[in-house]
Design brief:
Elements lengths: L1 E5 L20 E2 L2 E2 H11 L10 E6 L3 H8 L8 E6 L5 H7 L9 E5 L2 E3 L3 H11 L3 E11 L4 E4 L16 E5 L3 E13 L15 H10 L4 E6 L4 E3 L3 H16 L2
Parallel strand pairs: 1-4, 1-6, 4-5, 8-12
Antiparallel strand pairs: 2-3, 6-11, 7-13, 8-11, 9-10
Helix pairs in contact: 3-5
Length: about 250
């Protein structure tokens, strides 16, 4: 089975670390982030003993750094091919560059996160349900930075005069919101690629919305909180880095 890793982003939120190193090559412990992702993919096999033995890396920004390190993948016990774009194309746009290499169900994931959940279960569930695309989802809650003010909509206008309009009815100080978030790991049928325009900066959210508009079966696969580490900014990267350094200290 093939997996596609989207590894062409600019990593702007991690500057200046990413001025000379692409985000997927930032070190975690004794190896780059992307190598941890590849090892995780290799470790998963489903109930039919299918394994991920072929990876397509979608690269763009500083792609030589990635290609020189991983080469054809033989050093890592897996076949690696590359789909290159001359400029960043957002998530779905990057995926589109690998279209010619994909002719069966495949895994797609972002190259800037650590995944630790059971991918095999997700693949099995996807195939049994005959889903068009499955998305890994995580329960998430956060406390908002500001309080919310409710106004009485029945009172009328926004003219800012001294009349009785816009009466404040409730003040909710820094409320907590919760819901399911997408963590950037998918199991996808190759027909999904037809929803993505060629050579265009197009997000996965846009492509999935297109699939939903066409009444395709998009399945959510819930995982537990411990199965995902986001490397979204400098703070989260340093937290993850310390975690992996601690792991090395225990070996």
């Amino acid at each position: 089975m093939k997996a596609v890793i989207l590894a062409g982003g600019l990593g702007t939120r991690l500057q200046p670390y990413t001025f000379f190193i692409p985000k997927p090559m930032l070190p975690l412990g004794n190896k780059p982030l992307l190598e941890h992702i590849i090892e995780w993919l290799k470790s998963n096999r489903n109930s039919n003993f299918e394994i991920i033995d072929h990876i397509v890396l979608c690269v763009s920004y500083l792609h030589r750094t990635i290609e020189d390190y991983f080469e054809d993948g033989s050093r890592f016990g897996i076949k690696i091919e590359y789909a290159r774009s001359e400029r960043p194309l957002a998530t779905a746009g990057q995926l589109k560059t690998a279209e010619k290499l994909l002719d069966d169900t495949f895994v797609c994931l972002y190259g800037d996160s650590i995944y630790e959940f059971n991918l095999s279960n997700m693949i099995n569930t996807h195939k049994k349900s005959k889903a068009f695309i499955s998305m890994a989802l995580l329960s998430y809650k956060t406390k908002l930075k500001y309080g919310f003010i409710d106004l009485d909509a029945k009172e009328g206008n926004n003219n800012g005069d001294n009349s009785d309009s816009n009466r404040v009815t409730r003040w909710i100080e820094k409320p907590e919101v919760s819901g399911l978030i997408n963590i950037g790991c998918y199991v996808i049928e190759p027909e999904f690629l037809k929803f993505i325009p060629i050579s265009s900066a197009f997000g996965m959210d846009d492509a999935v919305r297109k699939a939903l508009e066409q009444k395709r079966f998009v399945k959510g696969h819930k995982i537990v909180e411990s199965g995902f580490i986001d490397i979204g900014d400098k703070k989260s990267y340093l937290d993850a880095y310390k975690k992996y350094v601690d792991k090395l200290g225990k070996i």
